[in-house]
Design brief:
The structure is a homodimer of 606-residue chains.
Chain A (H helix, E strand, L loop, with lengths): L2 H7 L24 E14 L2 E8 L2 E8 L4 H7 L7 E10 L14 E12 L18 H6 L1 H4 L3 H23 L3 E2 L17 E3 L7 E3 L5 H10 L3 E9 L11 E10 L3 H20 L9 E3 H8 L13 E2 L1 H4 L5 H8 L3 E7 L2 H4 L2 H13 L6 E5 L5 E2 L8 H11 L6 E7 L1 H18 L10 E5 L4 E4 L4 E4 L26 E6 L2 E8 L4 H10 L4 H15 L6 E7 H8 L30 H6 L2 E3 L3
Parallel strand pairs in A: 3-5, 6-9, 11-17
Antiparallel strand pairs in A: 1-2, 1-4, 2-3, 4-5, 7-8, 9-10, 10-22, 12-13, 13-16, 14-15, 14-16, 17-20, 18-19, 20-21, 21-22
Helix pairs in contact in A: 5-7, 8-14, 12-14, 15-16
């Protein structure tokens, strides 16, 4: 290799130790001082005998001027510069000429007059522009394939930096509260969180498999039995789901567990944690305590166990109005044990076209509705369109009172089993609010949903299943009905909701072996199966397990909401697509058959 | 279920909110005050009308007295208590009667006079005693199976708590230094760190596989290309190795990467980090900077690239003494291009029996020696035994000078290729030091080994391979010999050594695509293969990659050394055995064939 070649392959500054300054560390007071700046070139502008660039490093940007008359050598080198080249510049701070300041830039009043410049690396033609703040026009697959370029965008970069500060702020709080950060295994046993496990074949134990954890649930309980009393971990978890929604196969969880606490202790601590972090990072003061809604009330009022309370349009019970109605559809539903419920869209008559309404009917049917009845509200308590003709004058008056309806509003009805009516109207409520921008963007509405049922009946599995997981403690007051009427029993669990998204949840756990066995029995998990899957937990509960409980938060989802993003992919440095694929590394990928043989497996023929 | 049964299954205090105090929060000044304590029972002692227990929580222990005359009800309940029961005690602080203080206990001057007590949970007969501080006699498999009991031991508990403080202290330092904690994927592509990957079959992309990361190497380089400049992560890594040594299939790494830095920047920052953490957690002041040894010097002087400098017994070159020797074995080795080297074990003549010496010969042969020559040093520069009769009086005198030998010492010789002589004497040096307790336990000898070769010849693969990894930058001064004499080229890498163990290492990386391609070529990685495996890195290097470098530390190993443990299993909450097996959860384990079918694989027939 020639000397010239080797120099081209190498960077001379590698062994220099010039002190380097960050762009935004410099201000007007530094006028006349010389600095060394290093970073990436944005906005290269050639004005004849002057060349301007904006230099970007992780702190921000600053303008650099190359002046042929001041430093011909630098100017000559600068001629070769293109966007996103990496450069090291030595230059002197000067105040920008009047009228040329850039008010959008923190360093907009100054610029650097270059005295020397070194090209540290060049850059090929970009597949897309980095400067444009909006991703509009750039395909997300392209963005993910060139993630290193995408991450240079201001918004994405700030999201990732915020994430770092966010998790550190949480750690700082918990550390001060006496929590211990304890690592749990990744190569572990299947945990029964209701999703599919990712499997890892074992080479040293051919025919056996590890599973990647869906959560550290059992280990954190074991840690309580060990006597650590206050555990936390910010930890990756894995679920092999069909990624229909905005989910990732691997996601990050803040995981906590405490001994000798009750539900209120955990809720208060969480509130204190959140308000501390909000104050520190966002300078937002949260009102404590957050509202606590009963599960039943949340379903009745919002049709959801993760209600978005940033807007009204709540669900109203209308059965009492229609109990003697001449509209048979409603009356029969009520007689048959169902309910009639409704919501009122303010000014809906004007907002919705006939086509819109048809779409809403289809929307409702997607969520199990038989149809979607509606009426427009006119002047003087008149009704118009939809099922208006079936509704008597007296009923109209009652409806208008119940729903606070006014001229121009629109009412939607569901007559069905309470469960279905709630679910459909709950979905419709959110759908309408999004469609008509009824949701204030800057609000952070945190709330708790409590008193969930312990069990539910799974139509799919044709048996009783846990609403949360089988280690959730029933409420003390409902212990007596566990066997006689299990679906009525409520649990000591709590979901944490922000702006209509579930961002966390937890429970007081069962800490008595007998009760845990009882729950397995109700869930029709045979003693043999219980032993096979959870034997070590049952053993642990029999060796002095303290009362304990905990909570876990979805870090990705919280960050998405805090950063006002629409996708969790925008708060994750290296996310996967909805097909669990990474376009950057082309992962997952084929592997050599030798690797499969080593772990004792083979591919199934298609 | 009857009311009584349900009460037995449940704990009444669950919903109580009595403020609870920790054992070691209480002292003599609290005399007469009432507290609620919760924890585990140690040392239950029944003295007739008095029952004593030591109550343990995570803060420590305190003595509780149940006095039949003071609280008959508590006394009655206390009668049912056994070791490791979980209890809640309400009691009053009193000063212990003179002569009954326990000087070993922080709370040894006081005790709690119980007024009421509640049994929160009971405990079956323990498989082993928790109180005994030494694990002697308890099989490690038993300890791991009942890990929740093992973790109640003081030493193990303190290790895990120290670990939490240790990693937090690191984070705190790096956060202040402007580092960003950025998460990288776990479901990713195979990285070429020289070990086997753990594989994860993909269900959504049948026939394709993820690999668990051996390190976030490529992602952290990508983050530098993205412009984050200062990255860190405390992250789990995975290697599917044959676990002959004290290794775990999953281990934790402190991973760092920086842009626009040189080697010295990284070394200084590491030293500052370590000395900060040592000061904060151990109150130990480390002398900075740590010594920097050239790889060649480390091998010549200590026969190891991870020298333990806590003791002397260094390797000496003796070839010049034997160059004209009448001892043909030595002379011929030197003539043939080999070397004669030796070490001197102080007072070795008295320490070693004939049988010991035979064992040492076998030991040396294990590491490739043809044999192990030795001589005892007697009075007046006489030699005795071994190869003494082949050594002339002049040679003896020179040897004694060279090795600082005295009457009673023992000299061991190796005549072989320099590489082999160094390796054998290096191993022997450490072996002898351990055997005869020559290593001061309380010393922390940190050092750097620098100027490693870039490549080495692999006898196994019959080709040149990277000493570290293929992204390591060569030294600027050695660029010219990369092709002409690659095995002479040195790298910009550094290993970090504590007390003879490699606890970290890193390098300045290649940031130019052309140089990276050049290295792949030397390593005989075809352009097609390079593209397949590292295409995204090569692409990234061509889009404005800054000069960058980094380092990674093995957290488990550092903690083992700091805590003076012999196994990393003692600083990990839930370790696996040497067969990568977890006795607690019985993992890895068989899974249902349906799970295999879902991911498109089947077990190979044996």
């Amino acid at each position: 290799m020639s000397k010239m070649e080797s120099e081209r392959l190498f960077v001379k500054t590698l062994t220099k130790t010039l002190k380097r300054t960050l762009c935004e560390e410099i201000n007007e007071n530094d006028k006349g001082l010389e600095f060394n700046l290093k970073g990436w070139v944005m906005h290269y502008r050639d004005h004849g005998s002057l060349i301007f660039i904006d230099l970007r490093d992780y702190s921000g940007t600053i303008q650099i001027v190359f002046d042929e008359t001041i430093s011909p050598q630098s100017f000559k080198t600068a001629k070769k510069i293109r966007n996103e080249f990496v450069v090291s510049v030595l230059g002197v701070v000067r105040i920008r000429p009047s009228g040329t300041e850039n008010p959008h830039l923190k360093t907009g009043k100054i610029e650097i007059e270059a005295r020397s410049v070194e090209l540290l690396n060049d850059c090929e033609t970009l597949p897309f522009q980095i400067e444009e703040e909006k991703e509009a026009g750039v395909n997300e697959l392209m963005r993910l394939k060139y993630r290193y370029l995408d991450l240079r965008r201001k918004k994405l970069k700030e999201n990732i930096i915020f994430r770092s500060n966010f998790t550190f702020s949480i750690r700082n709080f918990l550390q001060k509260k006496g929590f211990f950060d304890i690592e749990t295994p990744f190569l572990t046993k299947s945990t029964p969180e209701g999703s599919r496990d990712f499997l890892v074949p074992s080479r040293l134990n051919i025919g056996s498999f590890y599973a990647l954890p869906q959560s550290p649930q059992l280990f954190k309980q074991i840690l309580m039995v060990s006597g650590f009393e206050r555990y936390y971990q910010i930890v990756r978890c894995f679920r092999d789901e069909d990624l229909r929604a905005d989910r990732q196969p691997e996601f990050t969880q803040l995981d906590m567990e405490m001994s000798f606490v009750n539900k209120d202790d955990i809720l208060s601590l969480t509130e204190e944690l959140l308000s501390g972090v909000f104050g520190e990072l966002l300078n937002i003061k949260l009102n404590l305590p957050f509202p606590r809604l009963n599960y039943d009330d949340a379903m009745d009022t919002y049709g959801s166990d993760k209600p978005d309370t940033r807007f009204e349009m709540t669900l109203k019970k209308l059965s009492h109005i229609f109990v003697n109605s001449s509209f048979n559809l409603f009356k029969d539903t009520i007689t048959g044990g169902g309910e009639v419920k409704g919501i009122c869209l303010k000014t809906g008559s004007n907002l919705l076209s006939r086509k819109d309404i048809d779409e809403l009917v289809s929307f409702a049917k997607e969520f199990g509705a038989k149809g979607l009845a509606w009426t427009k509200v006119g002047e003087n308590k008149t009704f118009d369109g939809g099922i208006s003709k079936f509704i008597s004058i007296g009923e109209r008056s009652n409806l208008i009172n119940e729903l606070n309806a006014e001229n121009g509003d629109m009412i939607f009805y569901q007559a069905d089993l309470k469960r279905i009516a709630n679910a459909v109207l709950g979905k419709l409520r959110v759908h309408l609010a999004k469609k008509f921008n009824l949701i204030p963007k800057s609000k952070f509405n945190f709330l708790w949903v409590v008193n969930f049922p312990l069990f539910e009946y799974s139509e799919e599995e044709k048996k009783i299943v846990s609403v949360h997981h089988p280690f959730t403690s029933p409420k003390l007051s409902d212990i007596d009905i566990l066997i006689s009427d299990p679906l009525k029993a409520r649990s000591e669990s709590y979901d944490f909701v922000l702006n209509g998204e579930e961002i966390g949840g937890g429970s007081i756990r069962i800490h008595k072996k007998e009760l845990q066995e009882q729950i397995f029995k109700i869930l029709k998990i045979t003693p043999e199966n219980a032993r096979l899957k959870f034997g070590f937990l049952l053993d642990a509960l029999s060796f002095g397990a303290p009362p304990h409980g905990g909570i876990a938060f979805g870090i990705d989802r919280i960050l998405m909401l805090l950063r006002n993003e629409n996708s969790i992919r925008d708060v994750i440095a290296f996310p996967k697509t909805q097909k669990a694929y990474c376009p950057l590394t082309d992962t997952p990928s084929k592997i050599e058959s030798m690797q499969l043989r080593e772990v004792g497996i083979s591919l199934l023929k298609k």
